[in-house]
């Protein structure tokens, strides 16, 4: 497939939160990706292929698949042409952010839904819980907080890299000990993640997570950033927190598995 990565990024940025995953993959792994763009009279369609072996999450989660596939565009006919070029003899994972893309794919292929992730964001006028002035922002990695973030699945190496790239932490302390914390870190362009939300067991049910997340979001908004709160569909506590704080659901990214057998 031919590559026109700069033009593809320009088109995807028109809906940056909707297309944040393919944009981030292009930024991080663009040299390894196959990119295809069709444009006709203002209509466009994009198809991206990323080898699963390149992205650690995919390599671990979908070891039998050869590629992850991303679609985006404004025209069903163009997208259909792109999909019909795919190597259907291989197992693939489709990461789908719009219902119409799912419909287009399911008309052509037998697919199995594996999981989905939800993206939330917020504007300053929608903040329901006021930021807490007692939640300090820390721009250096605080060793005392590592166990809390690592309990959420992050490794020490990942956290060190995040702070080297500009991450910040927001933490409420009780008697000098961390009670609830979260991180913000750059994702793509002006989009920053709010993640690693963790409240120690003794302090759960007190609304502390709401305070640290709201403070983190307010800080990002004050700097002109776009907060992104990314949640796996089974994480009901985090979804309830997003709703409670006034976050708006922006997109669902569903993972659909194709086993390489059309019949």
TrEMBL record:
Organism expressing this protein natively: Paenibacillus methanolicus
Name assigned to this protein: FR47-like protein
Signal sequence, renumbered to the chain: none
One Pfam family cited in the UniProt record for this chain: FR47
SUPFAM superfamilies per UniProt: Acyl-CoA N-acyltransferases (Nat)
Ranges where the N-acetyltransferase domain occurs: 122-263
GO molecular function: acyltransferase activity, transferring groups other than amino-acyl groups
Listed InterPro entries: Acyl_CoA_acyltransferase, GCN5-like_dom, GNAT_acetyltra_YdfB-like, GNAT_dom
């Amino acid at each position: 497939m031919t590559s026109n990565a700069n033009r593809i990024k320009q088109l995807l940025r028109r809906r940056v939160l909707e297309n944040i995953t393919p944009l981030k993959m292009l930024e991080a792994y663009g040299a390894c990706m196959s990119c295809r763009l069709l444009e006709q009279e203002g209509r466009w369609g994009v198809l991206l292929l990323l080898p699963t072996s390149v992205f650690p999450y995919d390599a671990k989660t979908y070891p039998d698949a050869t590629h992850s596939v991303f679609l985006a565009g404004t025209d069903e006919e163009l997208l259909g042409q792109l999909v019909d070029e795919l190597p259907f003899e291989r197992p693939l994972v489709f990461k789908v952010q719009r219902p119409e893309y799912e419909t287009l794919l399911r008309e052509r292929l037998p697919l199995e839904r594996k999981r989905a992730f939800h993206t939330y964001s917020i504007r300053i006028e929608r903040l329901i819980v006021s930021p807490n002035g007692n939640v300090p922002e820390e721009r250096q990695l605080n060793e005392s907080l590592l166990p809390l973030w690592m309990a959420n699945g992050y490794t020490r190496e990942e956290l060190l890299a995040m702070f080297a790239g500009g991450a910040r932490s927001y933490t409420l302390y009780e008697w000098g000990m961390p009670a609830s914390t979260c991180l913000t870190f750059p994702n793509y362009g002006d989009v920053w993640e709010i993640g690693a939300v963790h409240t120690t067991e003794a302090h759960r049910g007190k609304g502390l997570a709401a305070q640290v997340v709201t403070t983190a979001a307010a800080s990002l908004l004050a700097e002109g950033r776009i907060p992104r709160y990314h949640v796996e569909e089974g994480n009901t506590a985090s979804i309830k927190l997003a709703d409670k704080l006034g976050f708006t659901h922006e997109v669902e990214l569903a993972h659909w598995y194709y086993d390489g057998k059309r019949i």
